[in-house]
Design brief:
Layout lengths: L10 H13 L1 H15 L10 H8 L4 H9 L4 E6 L14 H11 L3 E7 L5 H4 L8 H16 L6 E5 L5 H11 L5 E4 L10 H12 L5 H11 L11 H11 L15 H16 L10 H4 L2 H14 L5 H11 L6 H8 L16 H7 L1 H11 L21 E5 L2 E5 L24 E6 L2 E6 L9 E9 L2 H9 L7 E5 L4 H4 L8 H9 L4 E5 L12 E6 L16 E5 L4 E4 L3 H6 L20 H6 L12
Parallel strand pairs: 1-2, 1-3, 3-4, 9-10, 10-11, 11-12
Antiparallel strand pairs: 5-6, 7-8, 8-12, 9-13, 13-14
Helix pairs in contact: 5-12, 7-8, 8-15, 9-10, 9-21, 11-14
């Protein structure tokens, strides 16, 4: 893997990085001090008692047991999110065996240190279980911590793909940042029904023009095989981010599962993890790999690809776990200078397989480096700068190898060079005004829809919106306000079920927008949506003052979000209240009361771990 020299850093990228570094100076120093104290020297299990150690290798095969007893080989922790209900995670069933064999070949042992829960937002969308989704990130972080807490391990191999799972694994691994961590992807399923056709049928179903049988047939044609869902939501945004942060082997994000190349990359991940432990010559702890520059690179990658709005929560939580403080101003300011280079559904018709075939991550990273939009001098698990992640893997006659990515995009309707982007900006904006602070993603919103001024209709649940839509009450210009959807109210479920109904209204010529203190989705698209509004209504946020027929103005050009109500009247209005007891029980919600009571605001990550 050779490194090429990127151009000089773009001034805004440098400016944002420097202010993050200054803002984080104290918290980052404290984190690094903790990691240095945790590092110790020699194999981690050297500090265990004989009883501790005997428990740790009791079930190991004889050769591994001897190596663990003698403290002569590094021991790799496999932390897996395997289950066979998630299509994206089903391929992980085979991974522990592959990783153990590769570890032995590299002079190391590997043990499954623990499993983490892995829920599917696709299954729980619109269901009570979705109210556990955001908090599952914190449970996963804690579960990762439990897996690594045995003190048996010299590096971590983290197996996860989907929405909250990768952020949770990374937050947990950051708490053990004295260890190297290598993330091991599984890859996307083959392309199924075209995304535009799937969206069309969803909209027809919302309008009552097709039945459930037609809808189910469409959905089954889209989500049909092992592997990650192929649209560009949070799961595939996760894989892009890990590669841009240098936590994957280069080019491994979108290689399909159960293929010779995928298996070769999986084995190589174990070999690389063994090489970068404290027992080797290339010690690369996670705390050294991930710093302020890596976080900025992640934000740039997100903006350049039109990635998931969920990462305006997750990246903040990830950064905070490492003592790095970022906020929505940083996202918005970077968005002004980062061009949109990819059109992947819902920002276009293509899926991630088309993106990968057009040049994928290698081409994307090369273009962003050449434009000075990424920090090329970061450390990566490959042991080189970020240019080493701009290579693509292939199976040469001698085995796994890396080569330069294509010099030109294979399909400019999907992936473009920085000199000829789809848009000059990244399409993510911070909105400010008398309703608080919010984010909006406009990379899929048409220019004529980027400013909406219309009367409000106020709801306290997603279900109430859909019932009103079915009654025909929203067939006009309208700003749909959905409140009591933040972390402290009900766990901040995605409101993805609103997309077909709101898109239907917009397609009929109405001016339509959504304003909510909840999440929309990693697949938020063509309807302007001011989301993650903070402070949330359950914490006294001013969205609780909005009443039906108040005129709301969303201006994603100027970055404003206002209730156009005279200040004197606005200031006198009481905040709305709601009975939230219905969100407290059923489908396990009673187990998460402590999370709802202690969740951070959305702009601080919305969780309890960071």
């Amino acid at each position: 893997m050779s490194e090429t020299r990127p151009s000089s850093l773009q001034p805004r990228v440098r400016e944002v990085t420097e202010r993050i570094r200054e803002r984080s100076r104290g918290s980052r120093a404290a984190y690094l001090e903790r990691m240095a104290a945790q590092a110790g020297g020699g194999p981690a299990r050297e500090r265990l008692s004989c009883t501790n150690l005997a428990h740790g290798f009791a079930a190991s095969a004889a050769p591994d047991k001897q190596a663990l007893k003698e403290l002569r080989w590094p021991n790799l922790a496999i932390v897996t999110a395997y289950n066979d209900m998630l299509s994206a995670h089903q391929p992980y069933e085979r991974y522990p065996g592959l990783l153990r064999v590769a570890a032995r070949e590299a002079g190391a042992t590997a043990q499954v240190a623990g499993g983490v829960p892995a829920m599917c937002d696709g299954v729980t969308q619109g269901q009570p279980g979705m109210e556990l989704s955001l908090f599952s990130r914190d449970v996963i972080a804690m579960s990762t911590g439990i897996a690594l807490s045995h003190g048996m391990f010299d590096a971590a191999l983290c197996l996860g793909v989907c929405d909250k799972i990768v952020p949770g694994l990374l937050i947990g691994a950051i708490a053990f940042g004295q260890l190297p961590s290598v993330f091991v992807p599984a890859g996307p399923m083959p392309s199924g029904m075209p995304n535009k056709e799937k969206a069309r049928i969803r909209q027809l179903f919302a309008e009552g023009k097709v039945g459930r049988d037609a809808l189910l047939e469409s959905e089954a044609g889209s989500y049909h095989s092992a592997g990650t869902c192929t649209f560009y939501g949070t799961a595939n945004s996760n894989q892009m981010l890990l590669e841009v942060m240098g936590l994957h082997l280069p080019g491994s994000a979108f290689v399909p599962p159960n293929t010779p190349l995928r298996d070769a990359l999986t084995a190589a991940a174990a070999r690389r993890a063994a090489q970068i432990t404290g027992l080797g010559r290339e010690y690369l702890p996670l705390s050294k790999v991930l710093d302020e520059r890596g976080i900025v690179n992640a934000v740039v990658g997100l903006l350049a690809t039109g990635g998931s709005t969920n990462h305006t929560l997750h990246l903040i939580a990830i950064a905070r776990a490492a003592g790095i403080l970022i906020d929505w101003d940083d996202f918005s300011d970077l968005s002004e200078v980062v061009p949109l280079l990819a059109r992947i559904y819902p920002n276009g018709g293509a899926d991630v397989n088309h993106f990968h075939a057009a040049g994928g991550m290698g081409f994307l990273i090369s273009e962003l480096l050449a434009a000075g939009l990424l920090h090329g001098d970061v450390q990566t698990i490959s042991g080189a700068g970020l240019a080493a992640s701009a290579l693509e893997p292939w199976l040469s006659p001698q085995g796994l190898a890396w080569r330069k990515p294509p010099a030109a995009s294979g399909d400019t309707t999907v992936l473009r060079p920085a000199a000829d982007p789809f848009s000059a900006d990244g399409g993510l904006k911070l909105l400010r005004g008398n309703l608080g602070r919010s984010v909006i993603k406009v990379s899929a919103v048409s220019p004529q829809q980027r400013i909406v001024e219309a009367p409000a209709r106020v709801f306290d649940s997603q279900e109430a919106v859909l019932e009103s839509f079915q009654r025909g009450e929203l067939a006009r210009d309208v700003v749909v306000v959905v409140r009591f959807q933040g972390p402290r109210a009900n766990g901040m479920p995605e409101l993805h079920g609103l997309t077909p109904a709101l898109a239907s209204l917009q397609s009929k010529g109405h001016r339509v927008a959504l304003v909510t203190d909840g999440r929309m989705s990693g697949a938020s698209g063509a309807v302007p949506a001011a989301i993650h509004l903070t402070p949330e209504v359950a914490s006294g946020g001013p969205l609780g003052k909005v009443r039906d027929d108040d005129v709301i103005r969303i201006d994603s050009v100027k970055g404003t979000l206002e209730a156009l109500v005279p200040a004197e009247s606005w200031n006198r209005r009481p905040l709305a209240t709601a009975d939230l007891t219905g969100n407290a029980f059923g489908m396990g919600r009673e187990l998460f009361q402590v999370f709802r009571k202690n969740a951070a605001p959305a702009e601080e990550g919305g969780g309890v771990c960071a």
